[in-house]
Amino acid sequence: xxxxxxMYIGAHVSPAGGLYKAIGRGxxxxxxxxxxxxxxxxxxxxxKYEEKDFQAFRDAMADSRVKSVxxxxxxxxxxxxxxxxxxxxxxxxxxxxxxxGDAIGAAGVVLHPGSAKGGDVDxxxxxxxxxxxxxxxxxxxxxxxLEDTAGAGGTLGRxxxxxxxxxxxxxxxxxxxxxxDSCHLLxxxxxxxxxxxxxxxxxECAAEVGxxxxxxxxxxxxxxxxxxNRDRHAPPGDGEIGKSGLGxxxxxxxxxxxxxxxxxxxxxxxxxxxxxxxxxxxxxxxxRKRRG
Length: 292
Hints:
By secondary structure, this protein is an alpha/beta fold. The chain is 40% helix and 14% strand.
């Protein structure tokens, strides 16, 4: 049997020139899902949107093939910072992202959970929890997806145990889920390239976090080897995961219904239609492998 079509494969695209234009950019490359920044990813200053901007986005999406959108929170956020001012800025920015997610009907906001820098990880998780909880309390319905990390430095979320601890520190709200990045999983030591390996990884995810909290996926190949703890994306099929491994990842039945975002493509300007076509082919090949 062919894999279900209920996997929304797409890419990170720009909303430059108007929030609704992100939909058109997704359509141009054949995307079923898109990821956007709601403001410059390296600046605290928010982009000001009005209801007409949100309505234009919703209208454009309703008339398109794009079925799912996720927002990526800006890179400056560190909900676990020891600096109260940084935590407050992170709260404000994260709340803004979630509220925009509410307004455009996003499937979720993806967040890098933060960093302990050189400090104690457990204490950093305790600091991050209340910030995450308050951002969710100050927004309405958009989910928040904590992204697993490659494990470099003091980044939080390098294991399912750490993701579970972050969720617990935030009080375990239903709207708090996770985003799994294929590159980050491999780099942090999780073998995702074989059916048996990925089964074991997802069994651990189920035990530690719960598969019901799976909200979105990032499909990135890795320039670095298993357990390298280095976050170095490669275009699909050009890294250590490879085409066969990505096919295994994409075809896992537990990932049905999720938006799958390619962040690093072969084209100079980003992800192309060919990258998305490749991902779909790899998924079909992975499904055939599973059938034996």
